[in-house]
Amino acid sequence: MKKRPTIKDVARKAGLALSTVSLVINNSGYVSAEARKKVLQAIEELGYHPSRAARGLASRTSGNIGFILSEDHFSLAEPFYTKIFLGTEFEARKHNYYILMTTVGTRFREPTDVPRFLLEHNVDGVIIAGRVNEKLVAYVDRLGLPLALVDFAVPKKHYSSVQIDNRKGACLAVEHLLSLGHRAIGFVGGDISHPSIAERFDAFKDCLVDHAIPLKPDLIVADMPGTAVQDGAEGMKVLLDRGSRPTALFAANDAIAIGCMQLARQRGVRIPEDLSLVGFDDIETSAHLEPPLTTIRVLKEELGAAAVRTLVEAVKAKSATTMTVHVPVELVVRGSTCQLAAASPGARASTG
Amino acid sequence: MKKRPTIKDVARKAGLALSTVSLVINNSGYVSAEARKKVLQAIEELGYHPSRAARGLASRTSGNIGFILSEDHFSLAEPFYTKIFLGTEFEARKHNYYILMTTVGTRFREPTDVPRFLLEHNVDGVIIAGRVNEKLVAYVDRLGLPLALVDFAVPKKHYSSVQIDNRKGACLAVEHLLSLGHRAIGFVGGDISHPSIAERFDAFKDCLVDHAIPLKPDLIVADMPGTAVQDGAEGMKVLLDRGSRPTALFAANDAIAIGCMQLARQRGVRIPEDLSLVGFDDIETSAHLEPPLTTIRVLKEELGAAAVRTLVEAVKAKSATTMTVHVPVELVVRGSTCQLAAASPGARASTG
DNA sequence: TTCTAATATCGAAGCGTTTCGAGGTCATAC
DNA sequence: GTATGACCTCGAAACGCTTCGATATTAGAA
Fold first, then answer.
1. Mean pLDDT, chain B, whole residue set
2. Please, what is the Cα angle at B74 between A95 and B173, to 5 degrees?
3. In this complex, is the C-beta atom of A138 within 8 Å of any C-beta atom belonging to chain B?
4. Other Cβ atoms within 10 Å of B18 Cβ, number
5. Of A333, B107, B119, B251, which has the highest C-beta tally within 10 A?
6. How do strand B329-332 and strand B295-298 relate by DSSP bridges?
7. Is residue B34 classed exposed, middle or buried when 0-12, 13-18 and 19+ CB atoms within 10 A define those classes?
8. Pair B239, B202: CB distance under 8 Å
9. In angstroms, rounded to a whole number, what is the distance separating the alpha carbons of residues B278 and B178?
10. Hey, how many other C-beta atoms are within 10 angstroms of the C-beta on A57?
């Protein structure tokens, strides 16, 4: 409980000016080897460590990075963004930053909806994960704070961002299905206004075309309002009611895939025998489904870590250069996909 | 990018002294209704918000709570403490605090192993989750910082803490097994030096005695070094090699239970037919095992939230009163336990 | 030798708050 | 009529740093 030493005490003990001590601590300016040694020793003996608040006030830096998440994403049911957040925590510690986390609603009005750490000037940079109100993004930008978006982009604007390699993922999925002999490959997506979903859809189409497979519009459903389980079920229903019979399906994400699975079961469509199914994201539950879902794994922690690295660079550089990082994805083959040959009707009945 | 207003600007605009403005902001001292109104209006018009750094320096508060976690617990494989952490984030936002997170190793030497936020005086209180070096706890205590331990306790010392209701949980487990007709109930634990594990073991014994079931030492294994899956397998092995044949088993946590399951499968012991098994914690995977594990659910996020509440109280009160909060647990019945009747040898063979 | 630039140290002016004590007004109690 | 205390406002002194400009010294270039 005794008073902790200040830079003044160090200066006195070292017999040097306070400002010289500061130079040593910050490794800036000119300091003789001798003076440096004296300062270091005094620091050591006193057990001195600079105060963050004082340093922050004088240098107008906080040592913190703000992490903004949309409210509906920071639920315990949504481990996707939660993992991104944990990824930022991991990486921030490596760079001697702390993460201040907050969530925001879809509305954005000043100053009520401005994250407190922005009002208090308590962060040196901001990470925004997932879709948030564009006005919030603009607000952060106007503050002149380094900014990195994760799995989100604002149309017509260039911000630094960390993106999932959606195109690659979609290709991996399609090529996996092709390699299994599938040709009638469908797509179930929703909320095409979400950049990631749109990109997956786009790449899906491109990839088929690249492999000389003609697109069949009746195998595609992409107009559900959201990207949750019920949207997947809804999409699957539309597809089946339409009379379409794809042998394989690429779902825009795992939640949608799960919805497809549920409806398939209701309608007596067997997975993978009658229909191979590939998801995207590799969320926790996917591995535990029956059958376990073949999917595209997204390295969620890596998304967060990359965002921190981007930001730390930006803070150091003080330049407004923006950059986009694409985090790799990988195919995880599980039980929801199989060779087309085995998918002919009755194949199972004859063996069972 | 234009300079943000300071308290000085507010004072000028309101035609009052800077200190009066401060009093209004902090709702302290005497301020006339008229003056308050003028200040509030000036603040509104200028869009003023106090700077955290300046306020921190002057008032020696940071608005942050430090969260210390043992290194091996902050892995992505260990969602238990990670969830506690998320629980603190949730709750901290409600009280206008931010969480600064760090991990520590088992060693503790000053000043190398001291969390940076402590050196920088950058937190108003500290939460320590899980077992850490006792010297670290003593160090925090010596700093005079409010402290709350989560799922950890230091022998012979009284710190505020948030505990799992281990006794209740163990009783729920035992009584569940008793209600299924089991009498030969075994225990597999490890690392009895961990307070939580010890308490579960203790309550297990007490509960049996309370129900007039004599303790059979040969049904108990509790000397493994750790509490992980392999320790569970090891314990199960010892039990079986010893020739003990409990009809039901209470494992000190889910990881241990999983180890038991694995070894049981190897040895041809069927769960639940030959052996009913109850775990503790309700970790993510437990629900997805085959069979899904009956266990005692621990509200992990609530542990974290309770710790924050405890700490916020302590910061406000400035008193050194300590308190222990017990967070409730609940029994989750799944497929790894069943009625004793069905467990007679051959019961399955005759139906299969 | 003289000038310049690099090196080294220092004092002082902030950074934007909180807090303390001084000083003033006014109503109430004695 | 004066003392007392509540109420109100203010200026100034911290809080513990960074940073700027001044000054001094030294080494190398001209």
1. 91
2. 165
3. no
4. 14
5. B251
6. antiparallel
7. exposed
8. no
9. 12
10. 19
Exposed, middle or buried by CB within 10 Å (0-12, 13-18, 19+), for A220? buried
CA–C1' gap, B139 and D19, in angstroms:
34
Decide: A80 and A283 in contact? Cβ < 8 Å. Answer: yes
Question: pLDDT of A297-348, one tens digit each?
Answer: 999 999 999 999 999 999 887 777 899 999 999 999 999 999 986 444 443 3
Among positive and negative, which fits the CA dihedral A337, A340, A346, A348? negative
Cβ-based neighbour number of residue A342 at 10 Å: 14
Tokens 């509790």 — which residue? Answer: B222
Does B86 sit within 8 Å of A98, measured CB to CB? no
User: For strand D, which nucleotides have at least one atom less than 7 Å from a protein CB?
Assistant: 7-12, 14-21
Q: What tens digit of pLDDT does each residue of A131-184 get?
A: 899 999 999 999 999 999 999 988 888 999 999 999 999 999 999 999 999 999
Q: With b meaning 16 or more CB within 10 Å and e meaning fewer, what string describes A318-337?
A: eeeebeebebebebbebebb
Determine the Cα–Cα distance for residues B265 and B274; give it in Å rounded to an integer: 11
Tokens 């490794």, located at residue: A27
Contact list, B63 vs chain A (CB under 8 Å) = 120, 122
**Cα A153 to Cα A150: distance, rounded to the nearest angstrom:** 8
Q: Which of B95, B46, B86 is nearest to B67 (CA)?
A: B86
- Could you please report the per-residue DSSP string of B31-89? --HHHHHHHHHHHHHHT----HHHHHHHHT--SEEEEEEEGGGSSTT-HHHHHHHHHHH
Judge whether A211 and A178 are in contact, CB under 8 Å: yes
